[in-house]
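ok trying this again, last paste got cut off
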Amino acid sequence: MNATHFKHTLFALALFTLGAQAQTLQDWLPSSAQVAPVLQASPAIQAARAHQDAQLQRARGLEAGSGEWALRLNQQQRRVRDPQERFAETTVALERPLRLWGKAGMDARLAEQDRNVARIGLADAMHEASRQLLVQWFGALRAQLDADSAERELQLARELDRQARARLRQGDVSVLDARLAEAELQRSEATARLAQAERLRSTTLLQRLYPGLPAPQALPSAAPTPAALPADMGPALQDFLDHNHELNLLKTEARRQQQLAERLERDRWPDPTVGLFTARERAGSEQLVGVSVAMPLPGTWRESQARAAASDARVLQDKVQLLERNLASDFEARWLQATHQQQALTALQSAATTQRLAADKSLTAYTLGEHSMTELIQNRRLANEQQLASQRLRLDWLLNRAQIELDAHRLWDLDD
């Protein structure tokens, strides 16, 4: 087994739990077949494709070279004093600059780097569009989650208000308890309307930004048990860096800039312009055919351009190192965040279950006269808040895991 195969095997083992979770993610994520046409038709990707076409055409022109054939025509009059005569004379020349000293091959290599930059740039644009869609999608899911939670809380408040009114008519509860139940119903109605407004806003925004994308579906009632990430994230980190478009794009640009610096250094050796000419002198009594050569004399400008390009190449190399460090630290932070989110989610789900049981017992205690209406409302509100907090944390955890999967090209791999 070679080193490359061994590295990818380790990465596959390290992200085995991610692969298992990816099947669960598809329960509330659109498939690649649904996402691909939506993103391909988006203005951002259309602009990226147009930019790629422009880059490819520039690469084609660079490889062909800027030298073109030039037609030169001279028309003159010759005057002779002794004997006094006038002659019409014409000179026609065909000229073209030549690329010598290996410059044509260097331009071809520069053009190939330009094509790589264009290819990676489009893939990077597609990846960033996928990340934005992922965030927007989970934002819509979060708004829907809040709306569903507010609706459940409203139903409970309505039931409590109904019971309080009925018991008030029977004299089993005080007017204060009935008013507290009514106030809780009014608060729940306001919360539910705000949550519904936010759900409509996020859903409408998602539909307008990504027309044709299916609407988010309701979350499963039971959250999947999070599987722990492996302790060694080294293989996953290396594979993430190998596939990162932004880093690969900057590396390609740095290589191109280094080749450009070498090309400009070679430009200090000037290229000649060679031409063929024919002349008709003394009214055609003399016919001339010859070859012309023009050679520019290099000066300070060519030298300064070469040195500036070399400095720009060193700048890009330093930026590559800085970006690689930033990406590695960001990936490590997200990896650790996902690990702690898994632990916190387990604890928060247990707390939500315990709080729900406490709220149920509080209702029984209130019926028996052992709890006040205020205590019952507070316990119910805490139970709903705990449940909502655990569901929100689940969404945050799933978003983090989905982003890791997306960056590892295991989710929505839409590269051309």
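PB: full thing came through this time. The first helix runs from residue 3 to 14.
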